[in-house]
Structures are given as structure tokens and as C-alpha cells.
Design goal:
Elements: H1 4-9, H2 12-23, H3 26-39, H4 43-57, H5 63-81, E1 83-88, H6 91-95, E2 102-107, H7 113-122, E3 129-132, H8 141-147, E4 150-152, H9 160-175, E5 180-182, H10 200-206, E6 217-226, H11 232-237, H12 240-245, H13 248-267, E7 275-280, E8 284-285, H14 286-292, H15 302-321, H16 328-337, H17 345-361, H18 373-386, E9 390-392, E10 398-400, H19 405-413
Parallel strand pairs: 1-7, 2-5, 2-6, 3-4, 3-5
Antiparallel strand pairs: 6-7, 6-8, 9-10
């Protein structure tokens, strides 16, 4: 008989079959034999442990859950928190991506809501596989993530057997043309700005890539931003590494408290989190990139591949950065950050419009509620006043609350690259 949670979510047998397929993969078994010899352990014991690792890693795609239940849950949850706004640099170019290609959606990582947003935006066309960390290890989040295509990643694991199993899963999924969602930064931003890319997962995908015989790897860059990042205060009080260092029980308990508090804000106090925005860029062919740079990929060793992945990753993340949407709260934070003495409503609107024009001139995807700068400003003011980020003074000026200066800077930083001088 299946465990209760597996029976309820309807994925037990498929999930275990996929885990068995991974654990008995010839390339992985070869690695297991080498590991057993190096460590002086019995091969049977190593294979048994490998099977446990496979059960930990693999997702449990349930098409009915994903496209019916999961989509509706994701849509309802997102719309309960946010108004969703979507942009396209060139929507027609997305239609040219072939079903024979291996597709990867790559995005900046602003919030754990990114997973919901990505699945919500793509679920009408495809089923995504994506990596999730320790934060999702509680019931029923773990089961929901598995059914929605999530595979589990131990961040900063030094276990070579685990790393090899994760590598083979990602490669097998790519070979089966399962679309991936990847967040190259690897962790949420501690200050609101984008972090350098970590391309470990992408290196797994490309390890055996041959431009002549392999399906092309097509990356679709996506920029994501929010009027309110649910984890913003947590990120400002400590980065992801410090959070994970406190242990699994702390992570799980923090997740429960965070989820309860956030749902309470939305359901009980009827608060809106403003906009959740995503902007899709033009597809980027890995095969074309290698051809353009005259790289003979199959002949490179591991070190040489990483030398080429660095410029590729930097170019990709530059594209993602240029796609990051500009929502109303970020614009308001930028205006107020530049006026320490505060601004009255008229001055604030003038500054808000100026930021809008400057961002638009840089081809940014600027989000305006009801296509109105004045209405968008009012919405942003309500959100920031409610959170204590902004204060309204007796002299009629709006000023940044000194106690919330870091929070205001966090949102302003997410769009500051649009206002840097051209090089």
C-alpha cells in the first residue's frame, strides 16, 4: 500500500519508477562503482544509498494535478496576493522554438513565489521541471512541489554521490525534452540587486552536448519583479546561506510561520501585494552561441567548458537584467530615495513620471496600473504607507521612514541599472 501522502497526490508508482530509472542508469551505476572502490564500501550498500538519493531528488509529475488542480491553485494563490502583468519583447519569436529542442526558462530569482509565477505563466503550453531547496521540505509543500515538477536540491552539498545523481537526473530530463526552469543566481537576493550567476545545473545540461548530434538547447530569458517580495524582511536580516546554516528544523518552522503570517495578511487583513510582473525575452540558442564563438564543445575538458560557460552566463544574465520589469513600488522608492527631505504629492508625481520616462527610454517593461502614472503612484503610496516604509508628514511631504531605509533601498536597487549612465 502507498503512503497516505503519495496516494492522495496520486503519484506514488510513477514517482518510484522514475527514481528506479535514475538509480539504475548505467552512467550513474558506473559512478557508484568508482565511489564504492574509492571509499572502500560495499557496492550493494552504495547502490542502496543511491536509490534513497534518487527518491529524494526526482519529481513526480502528475499531469492531472499539474494542468488542472495545480494550475488553479497557483492561479488562485497568485491572484490572491498579486495582480499579474506579463510582457514580451518579441512574442512571435517564442513560437519559433521547436518541440525538438531542449528548452530552459532562465530567470532572476526575486522570491520563492517565482516558482508559482513561472508555472502559472507556462502551464497552458508545457510542464516545467525545476529545482527547489530545503524551504519546501514540509508537508504538504513537498508533495505539491513534486506533483508540479519540482526536484530537490541540497544546496552546497559536498556529497559526490548526491552530486552525480543530481547531474544525471538533469541530463536525463533534458534528453527527454522536459522543459526546465532555472534560477542561475542560486539564491534570493540579499539587497534587491541581481547576484552573479552560478551555472552548476546548466553545466550538467551541457556536459554531453554535441552541436552536430544533440538537440539544440534553447534558453528563454525572463525578468521577474514584484511590488512586494514576500521574503524581503527575511532577506535583509540574513542571507540564504546564514538561513540554511541554522538547520532543517529552523527552516521548516520558519516556513510555517512565514506562510501563516503571509496568508493572514492577505486573507484576514485583505492586503494586496500589488503587482507580480514577468517579461519574456527572445530565445537564445546555445548551439548558435557556440558557433558564433567558434567553440568545439565536445573536445573541451571540464575546466575549459567552465571557462566558456562564464562569458555565456554573463551574457545571458545581462539579457535577463534588461528584462526585469519596473513596477510602481520600485519607481516610488527610487524617487523618494533621491529626496531625503521629502516631496509633496505634486513633486512626487513629477518625479514618478520622470522615472517612468527614463525607464521606458531604456526599453524597460514599465508596469502602470490602469495605464495611469497618477493612479499607479497612489497604489504604490498605499502599499508603502501600509508597511511603514513611507511617512506622511504634517507639512504635506512624503518621506522615507529612517527605520525602513534598507527596505526602500531593496526595491529601488531592483531597477537601478536602468538609470546608470550609458557606457
Amino acid at each position: 500500500m502507498l503512503p497516505a501522502d503519495e496516494a492522495f497526490f496520486g503519484y506514488g508508482r510513477r514517482y518510484r519508477a522514475l527514481a528506479a530509472q535514475l538509480a539504475t542508469d548505467p552512467k550513474l551505476l558506473e559512478s557508484a562503482a568508482e565511489y564504492a572502490e574509492d571509499q572502500g564500501k560495499a557496492l550493494e550498500d552504495v547502490r542502496a544509498r543511491l536509490h534513497k538519493i534518487a527518491l529524494e531528488i526526482v519529481p513526480a509529475f502528475n499531469p492531472f494535478f499539474y494542468f488542472r488542480v495545480g494550475y488553479r491553485l497557483g492561479r488562485g494563490m497568485l491572484r490572491g496576493f498579486y495582480r499579474v502583468s506579463i510582457g514580451f519583447v518579441d512574442e512571435q519569436s517564442l513560437e519559433t522554438v521547436s518541440s525538438d529542442d531542449s528548452v530552459i526558462f532562465m530567470s532572476n530569482h526575486r522570491s520563492n513565489m517565482d516558482y508559482l509565477l513561472m508555472n502559472y505563466l507556462t502551464s497552458q503550453r508545457t510542464m516545467l521541471s525545476f529545482g527547489v531547496g530545503e524551504w519546501s521540505g514540509i508537508f504538504p509543500v513537498r508533495q505539491l512541489m513534486r506533483s508540479a515538477g519540482g526536484y530537490f536540491i541540497r544546496r552546497d552539498s559536498n556529497d559526490p554521490l548526491y552530486k552525480r545523481a543530481l547531474e544525471r537526473y538533469v541530463q536525463m530530463a533534458t534528453e527527454a525534452r522536459v522543459p526546465h526552469a532555472m534560477f542561475p543566481e542560486g539564491a534570493l537576493s540579499p539587497d534587491g540587486g541581481m547576484q552573479p550567476p552560478r551555472l552548476g545545473l546548466f553545466s550538467y545540461v551541457t556536459k554531453y552536448f554535441d552541436p552536430v548530434t544533440s538537440p539544440d538547447i534553447v534558453i528563454i530569458p525572463i525578468g521577474i519583479n514584484y511590488d512586494r517580495v514576500a521574503e524581503d524582511n527575511n532577506m535583509l536580516s540574513g542571507n540564504s546561506a546564514e538561513f540554511r546554516a541554522r538547520g532543517r528544523s529552523f527552516i521548516i518552522w520558519s516556513g510555517i510561520k512565514f506562510g501563516t503570517r503571509t496568508l493572514g495578511e492577505v486573507l484576514l487583513q485583505r492586503r494586496s501585494f500589488g503587482y507580480a510582473c514577468a517579461n519574456f525575452g527572445r530565445p537564445m540558442s546555445f548551439r548558435d552561441w557556440l558557433t558564433h564563438h567558434d567553440v568545439d564543445w565536445p573536445k573541451l575538458d571540464r575546466g575549459q567548458r567552465f571557462e566558456w560557460l562564464n562569458p555565456f552566463g554573463n551574457e545571458l544574465m545581462a539579457r535577463v537584467k534588461d528584462l526585469i520589469p519596473v513596477p510602481p513600488v520600485a519607481m516610488l522608492c527610487r524617487v523618494l530615495q533621491q529626496a531625503p527631505a521629502g516631496l509633496n504629492k505634486t513633486q512626487l508625481l513629477a518625479g514618478f513620471k520622470q522615472v517612468f520616462v527614463q525607464a521606458r527610454d531604456k526599453n524597460a517593461f514599465v508596469v502602470l496600473a490602469r495605464a495611469s502614472a497618477q493612479y499607479s503612484l497612489q497604489q504604490a503610496l498605499e502599499l508603502t504607507l501600509l508597511r511603514g516604509m513611507v511617512r506622511f508628514q504634517a507639512d504635506g511631504n512624503y518621506v522615507v521612514n529612517p527605520e525602513k531605509q534598507a527596505l526602500v533601498s531593496y526595491y529601488a536597487k531592483s531597477i537601478e541599472h536602468y538609470f546608470e549612465p550609458d557606457k
